[in-house]
Amino acid sequence: MERWTRREDERLLTGRGRYVADLSVPGCLDAAFVRSPVAHGELRAVDCAGARQVAGVVGAWSAVDLAELPCCAHAAADLQDLPPVPYTLLARLSTEEAVAGREWPVLVKDRVRYPGEAVAVVVGEDRYRAEDGAAEVTFTIDPLPAVVTPAQAADDSVRLFEGMSNVAFEGEAGEPIEESVWQGAAVVVEARYRQQLLMPTPMECRTILAVPEGDRLTVWSGHQMPHRLRRELAALLGWPAERIRAVVPDTGGAFGSKSAAFPEFVAVAYLAVRLGRPVRWIEDRLESMLTATRGRGQDQRVRLAADAHGNLLAYELAVDADVGAYPHLGVGLPMLTCRMAPGPYRTPRVHATLRSVLTNTMVTYPYRGAGRPEATIALERSIDLLAGRLGMDPVELRRRNFIPPESFPYQTPTGRTYDSGDYATALDEALETLGYADWRAEQARRRADPDALPLGIGLSCYVERSGGEPGGLHEFAALEAREDGVIVARCGAAPSGQGHETTFPALVAKTLGVDQTRVRLVEGDTDELPEGLGSFASRSAQVAGAALQHACGLLVEEARARAAQLWELPVEEVAWSDGAVSPTSGGAAMDLGELVKTTGPLRVDDRFESGMGFPFGAHAAVVEVDTELGVVHVLRVVAVDDCGVILNPVVVKGQAFGSAVQGIGQALYEGIPFDDNGVPQLANGLLDYLLPTATEIPPITVKDTCTPSPSTPLGAKGAGESGCIGTPAAIVNAVADALQPADPGLLQMPLTPDVVWRAARAPKLREAT
After folding, report:
1. Could you tell me the pLDDT band of residue 4, with boundaries at 50, 70 and 90?
2. Which of 462, 483, 535, 703 could crosslink 376 through cysteines, CB 3.0-4.6 Å?
3. For 699, what's the count of Cα atoms within 13 Å in the CB-facing half-sphere?
4. pTM to 2 decimals?
5. 63 and 131, same structural domain?
């Protein structure tokens, strides 16, 4: 499709966006949470009396006394049936077995299990008064030993839940590999990798505003799944879902971190109803850094075998995943890593195992890529190790083992069915764009010069899954034609920066043959849509776009049927073109708006199911390393991604560029420093948790190839997560190529100056062999 200007940009960039913090609601109160300074401990007492004496404080509650609060005099009579405060957060969980006995409380009742877990909530006339009140809450916690990595937690020497193992879930994909396969291989490489915990760090932190309105509650939140939010809050309050309306206004990013009903959300909604007044919570940056969801967090062990010619024989991946203190969605999330373990290669035997381990950290949750970066980094680092052992160019090793285009659909040993792919073409495009041969020549020159800075070239080829898992590949869409010619498109997705406001109306307009200005998009409001799944898993174009395209077909069918009845013609003799119906035998066309005026309101809706997509790509990076300072200078990044048919090149390029920057962050900068007691050392905010800024962003070239998906009507695959998946491994491989340490375990992300400096002084691969 043609390049479109993003509709939303002018509003957002000129300060006219409306976020939850911007909404003006009469009588609104603000909530502040009192948080534990320790990572693990027994809560002995909480005293909120001092907070209640602070001017402007409406109330302060701990888990002990919140259930005893009477209904506020301002509450409507028909809200008197509100049940006691729900202590347990019953959000969507991966398995019933994992959560049983390990429930996530809204406020701590007896034991603190992660730093910043809320022990009390204070509500004031504004945020300043609420914060003043929170400062007066006193409490006593007896500290316990804390564990913040799977390696520390898996042996159960420190248990988060009495009498229960910290290993909350175990799973596998593929079949176990016989030992004879490893013994018979010409080359076997083994390695261990650590995928550090990351913070999604959207520009806007978590938000919620709960407004009681008669016998209903309207909840405003920057959220990825408003229907899920409504459903979960209703279940927690003991209400039918129809009594809650969830609305998503402008949202400042999410990256997977805004798709749950968090403990703070439950407290705010509950208190709004109890007090009969609006209550808002806006998470600030330091609060977010302490208590917002984490991403990644895996300890990995790999074995990769090949014959003497470089043909892959077997791949084994063992994952110990850090899922945080409570077995929320993160407990099953690492299964995505296991299922995507084969990557783009036709390895005949692949076996991946998983242990999800509870630790004294905030819960791990989907973060841009969600399981696929972890799979790609482990495999692609190991491919480079194997190439080194075989004495092969890493390009040749990859080409030799790619799944060929004629093999699709391709069934992987871990149970995935890849829809389509042309992996060699993407790699060739990346190499040509990078100037691979020239950089190899420059590397050879530098290696011959003892005074030159080491230079490295790294590659990463990936396959990911987009759209969601089976059972979640559907979306609701509706189209309504109005007399004034406006077409209202309703979609169950929810925007958080993906460009829906531009892409979806343009898709509808192109499909119907009308001008884009006639199409108005409505999404992110549960009163406007009876159902919807939301925005996650790079599903916007692939699933929601397909649903809107399907609704366009229904609209055309209905318009033709109405015109046929009006003109007393067979439907086959009525044509649709450019937003109008006309007799095929000739005669004046009737615009859709005029048809509605004549025949009455016209609305169509349906739930449409798409297929799973498997985008892919090849990323390349060039770095030079200052071995005296341990500093990595990224000279060039090339990202070639294939997301099938592209609906909007401007949006897709922006998504690819932004995710590549986040991939650079994981490779070089981002990591959570913990003290000996398991508490993150983040008092200085983003000075302690480093993100790449404009100064650190190298030249990034984004290109694409196009291999349409046969399993989705538009031929589109997901496009939003590619850089987080492909870029980190390319950069780490480039640094490894520059330094060539004999021990690959020395280069664990983030590649800080200390890590790089030590690797530069360790024995080299040439020396070890």
Report:
1. low
2. 462
3. 7
4. 0.94
5. yes
